[in-house]
Amino acid sequence: MKKLRMLLAVIGLASWGSAQADYALNLPVGVTETSREIHDLHMLILWICVGIGIVVYGVMVYSIMHHRKSKGVTPATFHENTKLEIVWTIIPFLILLSMAIPATKVMIKTYDTSKADMSIKVTGYQWKWRYTYPDEGIDFFSALDAKSNEARQLGSKIDPAKVPNYLLSVDHPLVVPVNKKIRILITSADVIHSWWIPEFGWKKDAIPGYVTDGWIKVEKPGTYRGQCTELCGRDHGFMPIVVEAKTEEQYKEWVAAQVASKTVAAPAAAPAAVIGEAAAAPAPAVPAELTKEDLIAKGQEVYNANCVACHMATGEGLPGTFPPIKGSAVAAGPVADHIGLVVKGKGAMPPFGETLDATQIAAVVTFQRNGLGNSTGDVAQPADVKKN
Amino acid sequence: MTATTHDDHHDHGPAKGFMRWITTTNHKDIGTLYMVTALIMFFVGGAMALVIRAELFEPGIQYVDPLFFNQMTTLHALVMVFGAVMPAFAGLANWMIPMMIGAPDMALPRMNNWSFWVLPFALCLLSSTLFMEGGAPSAGWTLYPPLVLQGGNNLPFAVFSVHLLGISSIMAAINIIVTVFNMRAPGMTWMKLPLFVWTWVITAFLLIAIMPVFAGAVTMLLTDKFFGTSFFNAAGGGDPVLYQHLFWFFGHPEVYVLILPSFGVISQIIPTFARKPLFGYSSMVYATASIGFLSFIVWAHHQYTVGMPIQGELYFTYATMLIAVPTGVKVFNWLATMWQGAMTFETPMLYAIAFVVLFTMGGFTGLMMSISPADLQYHDTYFIVAHFHYTLVTGAVFAILAAVYYWLPKWTGHMYDERLGKLHFWLTTISVNVCFFPQHFSGLAGMPRRIPDYAVQFAEFNAMSTVGAFVMGFAQLIFAYLIIQCIRGAGEKATEEVWEGAKEHGLEWHLPSPPPYHTWTTAPDVK
C-alpha cells in the first residue's frame, strides 16, 4: 500500500504542480464503531474481489499468452461442460454467502438507533444545514464559511489551496459530546439533501416530509468534515458539514454559552434568534433604529451570505431560473411587500423569516432597494419587519 | 413470396437522394441512420463530458457557473444513454438481426422507419432546452423531485422528449420481438440463435416493461409542476421517495438494456477470433435471462440511503448480490471460449478482451456496492461514478466499438485501417483508465459526485481524470475517420467472410460484403 501511495504521489506530482499532501486512497477507518465495522467489511469485500480478480485475470493472461494463432496452435473444439457450469455457479454463490453474513450484522447494528443518550435534529436547506438540539433548546444554521465562499465564486482569482479547509469549513459547526450515543434525525425543508461525514461511516438522505435517522458515538474529540451528497441544486457542492466532537465538560461549557447568548438575544449576533421565537418571547428587546448607511452596509453582508447564490452579485439573477432584483417590481414597490416576500419566501425561495433576524431582514431589504441598480431611497427598519 | 411479387422490378436498390433516408423501410438503411445518430450524439455527449472535466481540472470555479455545470452532468447522461448507446444498439439490431436469423427484413418495416424518425426530434427537443431561458434540466439524469420541479420551463420539453424516446424504444423492441419470433429461417431454432439475437430479445422485453413506467413517472412530474397535483410533493401529502422507486424500477433494468446487447456482441466476437465455438451456449442464454429477471427485483439498491426499513435494505442487498452469479457465469464462459483457442488480436478482439477485463472491474465495484452498509459510504461519491463508467464506457461503449470494427467491413465492403484501429484501441483503453481509475480513490476518500468544485485534497486525482478524459475524447476522432474512410471505399476490399473462419460463426458471413440492399429474400437453410 505504501509503495502504491508513493507511486501515485509521484504521478500526481508529475501531472500537477502544487501537489497537496493530505489526499487519501481509501475509506477512512473513522471514529465510530459503525465506521470501523463498515471499513472492515469494505476491506473484506475488496480483498475477496482482488482474489477473484487475480484468478480470472491470471487465467485470461495465460490464455492470451499461450493460446494464440501466432504460436501455431490448433484450436480445440470443446464447447460444453455441464459440471463446470454448475461448479462456477455454486462457488460464487458460496463466496457471496460469506459476504452476506457480516454485511447483515453490520447493517442491523447501523440501523439500531434505540437507547440513544441524546438526539439532534438536522434539517437540510438550499444550501445550508440547520441543527436543533431539542433538549437544550439550541437551534442554529451552519453554512459555508466566508473565506471559502469568496474563493469559490467564478473568476474569484483566489487560490483555493491558500484557503484553510477549502469548501470543508462552516461558520457554525455542529458540536457533539464524545462517547455518547447520539441519534441524528434528518429531514429537509426544501429538496433532498444527504448528510454525510465519512469518518462516521454512513450518510442518510434529508427528504422533505420524512424524518430519517442514524446514530453516532464519536470516540475521539476532534473536527470531522463532510459534504452534502445528494444533488440539491446550484450550490450542492457548497454546503459542507463540520462536526466538532468535544469532551463532556467542553460540550457542557459550549451548551451553557449557547443558552446564555440566546437569552441575551442580541439579534445580529445570534442566528438562533428566529423571528417567530423572538416575537413570542416575553420581553423582546426592540431593535434600535439604524441609519440608512448602516443598514446598507449590513445588508450587503447579509446579501452576500444568503442571496448571491441565486440572485447573483449583480442582482440580475439567472434569466428563467432565478428572477432579478435589479429593476424588479418588488424592489420598487411598497416596502412591506418586499419584506413580506423575504420573510415568507416564494417557490424555490426559502422563507428567510425562519433563518434571519429582523435586523438582518431590514438591512438586506434596504440594501436591495438602494443598491444593485435600484434607488428607491427608502429604508426598512427592524420594527417594520416585526409588523409584517 | 417476396421473390414472386418483386419479379417485375429489376432495381432492388434504394431510392435516390435525400428522400431515401426519410422514407426508407429497409433494415440496413434504418440501421445506418441509427448508427450515424448515435455517433453524432456520442460526440455531443462527449463534448459535455469535457466541459465537466475541464471545470474539474483544478479546485476553484474557472469556466462555468455551477448551475450550467449541473445542466452538463444532466444532459451528458441523458444524451449518452438515450442518444448514443441505445440508438447504437438499435442500429446494430436493425443491421444484424435479419441477416443473422436469415430474414429478408424486419417484420414491421414501416414502424421501423417511424421508430427511428421519432428519435432525432426527441433529441432535438432535449437539446433545445440548453438554449432556453433558464437553461436545460439540471437535477441530474434521474430527474428527482422536488429539485427538478424548481427548474424553469425546460421540464415539459425534457418530459416530452422522454415520452418520444420511450415510444421509439418500445416500437423498436416490438419490431425485434416480432421479427425474431416469426421470421427465423427454417432450421434456425431458438437454441441456435446467435447470442446477439438472444440478448436483444431479452432486452426488448425489458424495454417494453420499463419504458411506460418511466413515461408515467415523468408525466407525474409534469402534472405536479403544472396542474397542481401532489404525487411527489410532501406538503400536499405526496411522497418524493415514490418517484425514486418508480424511476429505479425503470432505471435498473435500463442499465441492463445497455449491457445485455453488449454481452451479445462479445459472445459473437470472442468465438470468431478464438476460432472456437462459444463455450456453454445454453448456460449463456440462461444467464442472460436470469440477469434480465433479476434486474426487475433489485431497484432499491440505488436508494440505500433514503431510510428504507432494515428488512428492505437486507432484501435488496441479497437480491443484488445474486446478480453476480449469472454475470460470473458469463465471464467464465468467455474465458473458457478463449481457453485453448487459436486467438488473433484484430481491433474487434482487442476491444472484446478489454471489455471482459474492464467490465469485470465494474462488476467487482458493483458487488462491493451491493453490500448495503458499505454503500452507506460509497453512495453518491466518485466511487459510484467510477463504477458505472467502467460498466457503461468500458462495458457498453467498448462493446459498440468492438461491434462496429467487427461488422464495418461487412457493411461497407471495405476493411478499415488495422494500424489506426489498433492505435484507436490503445489510446482509448489507456486514457479511459487514466480518466476513471483515479475516481475510485477520490470517491473512497470522500469526494461526492455532481459537484462543480472540490476540496484541495482531491486535486491530483481530478487532474489525472481530466487529462485522461481529453485524450479519450480526441482519440474518438480516429474512430470517426476510420468509419468515413470505409464508407468512402478506401482500404482493401473485404471478402465474404471478412474474418478467417467466420462462416462458422454466423449467417451474416455467408452474404457478400457489402450485402445487397435486400438479403435472404430466399431464406437460407440452417442445418
Tell me what you see in this structure:
The complex is a heterodimer of chains A (388) and B (527). By secondary structure, chain A is α+β, with helices and mostly antiparallel strands. Chain A folds into 3 domains: 22-71 and 78-111, Helix Hairpins (Orthogonal Bundle); 118-272, Cupredoxins -  blue copper proteins (Immunoglobulin-like, Sandwich); 292-387, Cytochrome Bc1 Complex, Chain D, domain 2. Chain A has helices at 2-15, 33-66, 82-111, 146-151, 248-264, 275-280, 292-306, 308-311, 329-332, 335-344, 358-370, 382-387, and strands spanning 118-125, 128-133, 138-142, 174-177, 182-188, 193-197, 202-206, 212-216, 222-227, 240-246. In chain A, strand 1 and strand 2 form a beta hairpin. Chain A is elongated, with a radius of gyration of 28 Å. Chain B is mainly α and 527 residues long. Chain B has one domain (28-510): Cytochrome c oxidase-like, subunit I domain (Cytochrome C Oxidase, Chain A). Chain B contains 17 helices and no strands. The longest helix of chain B has 36 residues, at 66-101. The radius of gyration of chain B is 23 Å and the shape is globular. The interface between A and B is large, with 110 and 106 residues.
> What number of structural domains do the residues of chain B give?
1
Any low-confidence stretches of chain B, pLDDT <50, length ≥5? 1-9
Structural class of chain A: alpha+beta
Helical content class of chain A: 40-55%
Q: Helical region count of chain B?
A: 17
Number of structural units classed as domains of chain A: 3
Oligomeric organization of the protein chains: heterodimer
